[in-house]
Amino acid sequence: MLTADQLKEKAALRALDLVRDGMRLGLGTGSTAEHFVKALGARVAAGLNVLCVPTSEATRKLAESLNIPLSTLDEIPQLDLTVDGADELDDQLRLIKGGGGALLIEKIVATASKSMVVIADDSKEVAQLGRFPLPVEVVPVGLRATQALIKGMASEAGCDGEIKLRVGRGGEPFYTDQENLILDCHFGSIPEPEVLHFAIKRLPGVVEVGLFLGIADAAFVAGQEGLKVLRSATWEEKS
Question: Has 225 been annotated as catalytic?
Fold first, then answer.
């Protein structure tokens, strides 16, 4: 019986098979993405030539410690591949991301890539999104007004539940790398993710929504019975 950590590593190593010499890569954030970065570091030490853009300060520090060459989207505005985890994914490759607080840069990097591949253990696969609280990144100014607007717009989109300000380890508000706050929306289920995304994203105080829709091209999902590949209609794995 494989542990959850071993399943994450299995998915990460499968994604590593996609990496070719000379690629420009987006590096995701979170425990599963960390496995990919560590495995990539070993390949770089063995001579692989890549240039990578991290999606968070934590990922940047890890990649630097492994001597993985890093850059920014200002220097390389288009990437070949981004590999990242997900807090939830469904069979249409719709995702909830942002549990690690990096959803804004994760979405920017993923959409700047020719392909985005998700790596996950099978506990992240769901029939309907929403069990995991949906993160919404917001500016600090007018927080309570924005929170109330999100609650109202979400209700109109068929989603109701408690919306909580994320706090850090010391009980103080959690700030993203961009000095924004995160509201975690405990909806339980999201029957129409596209409708909810449109409703919330247009609010002035909202920076980004943790729904990744139409962004992922494939997912490697590791379970006790093996590794499953989910793919979009247009994605073709390069061998």
Answer: no
The parent domain of residue 173 ranges over: 134-209
- Cα 22 from Cα 43, distance rounded (Å): 13
pLDDT for the residue numbered 169:
87
Q: Is residue 236 part of a domain?
A: no
- Measured at the alpha carbon of residue 225, what is the angle toward residues 223 and 229, in degrees to the nearest 5? 60
Alpha carbon distance 54, 75 (integer Å): 13
Q: Are 120 and 173 in the same domain?
A: no
* 160 annotated ligand-binding residue: no
Q: Over 80: is that where the pLDDT of 75 sits?
A: yes
Catalytic-labelled residue, pool 34, 88, 106, 208: 106
Number of folded domains that form the chain: 2
pLDDT > 60? residue 178: yes
What CATH number is associated with residue 59? Answer: 3.40.50.1360
For residue 199, give Cα distances in angstroms to 54, 128, 166, 181: 29, 19, 21, 19
Is 99 annotated in a binding site? The answer is yes
29 is in an annotated binding site: yes
The pTM for the full model equals 0.96
With a CB cutoff of 8 Å and minimum separation 6, the contacts of 145 are 205
Whether residue 170 is annotated as binding a ligand: the answer is no
Q: Are residues 141 and 188 in the same domain?
A: yes
Q: Assess if residue 140 is contained within a domain.
A: yes
